[in-house]
TrEMBL record:
Domain 6-phosphogluconate dehydrogenase NADP-binding: 3-162
Catalytic activity: 3-hydroxy-2-methylpropanoate + NAD(+) = 2-methyl-3-oxopropanoate + NADH + H(+)
Keywords in alphabetical order: Branched-chain amino acid catabolism, NAD, Oxidoreductase
Name the UniProt record assigns to this protein: 3-hydroxyisobutyrate dehydrogenase
The protein's enzyme class: oxidoreductase
Pfam families membership: NAD_binding_11, NAD_binding_2
Family: Belongs to the HIBADH-related family.
Sample GO molecular function, one term: 3-hydroxyisobutyrate dehydrogenase activity
Pathway info: Amino-acid degradation; L-valine degradation
PROSITE patterns: 3_HYDROXYISOBUT_DH (PS00895)
Signal peptide: none
Organism: Microbulbifer spongiae
Amino acid sequence: MQKIAFFGLGNMGGPMAANLVKAGYQVAAFDLNPTALAQAQREGCLPCENSEQALEGAGIVISMLPSGNAVKGLYLGEQGLLQQLQGDTLVIDCSTVSAEDACLVHEAARARGIRALDAPVSGGTAAAIAGTLCFMCGGDTATIDAARVLLQAMGSKIFHAGGAGAGQVAKICNNLLLAVHMTGTAEALQLGVDKGLDPRVLSEIMRESSGNNWSLAHYNPFPGAMENVPAANGYCGGFSVALMLKDLRLAMDAAAGSASSTPMGALAENLYQLHGASAENQQLDFSSIQNMFRRPAGA
Ligand code: NAD
């Protein structure tokens, strides 16, 4: 049985690791958060006390971490994982980080003869649980081919975006667009409701019309308009406002680097910044941006 060392068992990494177990892999799991680790154990992963224990006998390393600093901290430097791995190890970082940070990991891996991919994902927690994530891979073709069966245990769509870091570029373009259509969807739904429409009826009309988009059809932000989404559950779980803000900052930094014009992304970033000004909102799912559009009581 192939052994995988899996780092980061949060909202996304937890179900991804569980799907690898279901596919027959032995998954040695490590997370700084004991609650996440205990949940992974319930899903059939082998809980590890530290990274050294997780790496024992593992030919594959997967990470799903919250930030570029966490990824660099895990892989780089004298104490980093890349110094401890065998040359034939396959390293797949699925976190969303800057293309520059991804390239640092690629370069350090290449220097030690280790194969690496940046492979951020889209689809949210529902797709992570269902094993239908979309992977956007950066790296060489041979490494993607070597990783394909493994990625198929967690996802249904595997794209080769280009060389090192290209997966991350695709991911921030996608999330810039996601933020724009989520805020636009929330705005349109609130307008309809303020004018007396039922959000379910309005959602159905727009889903069948030219306003249809993923936020509306699969992740409706208006409470009561859709079952089994964070809006139906007080905006708990899912993809946090803090993580969306991180991705929008990555997108704005990338745009500045290429002198690209991104006014829609900048506006979405402003809205999420305002919304995320309270620490409480930062932890809510990003569809809670709906609350920004609610009329104050009595208005
Ligand atoms: P999360 O905060 O739920 O989980 C991250 C986990 O990583 C936490 O359990 C944390 O304790 C752990 N961690 C942090 N540093 C660690 C380290 N050095 N070693 C081991 N564990 C460590 O975040 P998430 O929602 O699972 O997102 C993870 C990544 O996936 C982010 O980069 C995010 O942008 C991306 N992403 C999230 C979603 C989503 O819908 N949540 C969708 C697509 C992509």
